[in-house]
Amino acid sequence: MINGGLEKLDAHSTFINAEEYRTFTKQSKGRFGGVGIRIGTDRGGQLLVESPLPGTPAYEAGILAGDLILKIDGESTENMSQKKAVDKITGEAGVKVTLTVLHEGDKKPVDISMSRAEITIESVQGDLRIDNNLKQWDFMYDKVNKIGYIRIIQFTETTVKELTEVVDQLQKDGIKGLILDLRTNPGGLLTAAIEVSEFVLAAGHAHRQHQGPQRA
Questions:
Q1: Mean pLDDT of the region 122-141
Q2: CA-to-CA distance for 16 and 188, rounded, in angstroms?
Q3: Is the CB of residue 110 less than 8 Å from the CB of residue 140?
Q4: Is the dihedral of CA 132, 174, 128, 58 positive or negative?
Q5: In sequence order, what are the beta bridge partners of 188?
Q6: Half-sphere exposure of 200 (CA within 13 A, CB side)
Q7: Is the pTM above the cut of 0.70?
Q8: Which residues pair with 51 in a beta bridge?
Q9: Which of 134, 128, 62 is nearest to 101 (CA)?
Q10: Domain with CATH 2.30.42.10 in the chain
Q11: Which of 73, 78, 137, 215 could disulfide-link 126, Cβ–Cβ 3.0 to 4.6 Å?
Q12: How do residues 83-101 score in pLDDT, each as one tens digit?
């Protein structure tokens, strides 16, 4: 009923209940207790692992991209929503959780147990990982023309700090251009979005002042 009334305001106004607010707050802080996987669904609606994050419990335990998640702590995931699956997988760091998964191409599922850890969400990402260090992104997309690439997947409390560190390093590496990718970004903290905008606009203004007048 509340959301029905809010629809008359604009397409972006919605009511968030207490449980949804707790989830949003957890995500906006950029860290939570979990195993380090991104969850999606296949065409049949079965839960699957889109990708494990390098250096996390899931990655170290052998969870692979494309794994079908059949059970969580023994409970079948059939008809289970992504939200409920996330709620069951996340939790207090140090507590074990068992996923029953079917690796792509295998016929027999396996139980993989792992202890939850504090997972840090990288809101600022690149296009490819560094070959000899999968925990780090390679932000220099075009090494010949010195073009950087930064993808912001959501706006969290740490986004501006992450963005500043990446841009500073790219500038040290002699960057000549930058692609800032916001596609599929669902949003997040308004304050973080404003800070990112101010950072980018301020950087562009400072660059124009440094370069002198430009002709159009």
A1: 86
A2: 13
A3: no
A4: positive
A5: 155
A6: 14
A7: no
A8: 38
A9: 62
A10: 34-120
A11: 137
A12: 899 889 999 999 999 999 9
- 27-56 b/e with 16+ CB inside 10 Å = b? bbebebbbbbbebeeeeeeebbbebbbeeb
The matching CATH number, chosen from 3.30.70.20, 3.40.50.300, 2.30.42.10, 3.40.50.2300, for 34-120 is 2.30.42.10
pLDDT at 200: 85
- Which tokens in the block code for residue 44? 């049949």
Beta carbons of 97 and 91 less than 8 angstroms apart: yes
Three-state SS letters, 132-190: CEEEEEECEEECCCCEEEEEECCECCCHHHHHHHHHHHHHHCCCCEEEEECCCCCCECH
Q: Which residues pair with 177 in a beta bridge?
A: 147
Tens of pLDDT, residue by residue over 150-170, are 999 889 888 999 999 999 999
For residue 206, what pLDDT band results from cuts at 50, 70 and 90? very low
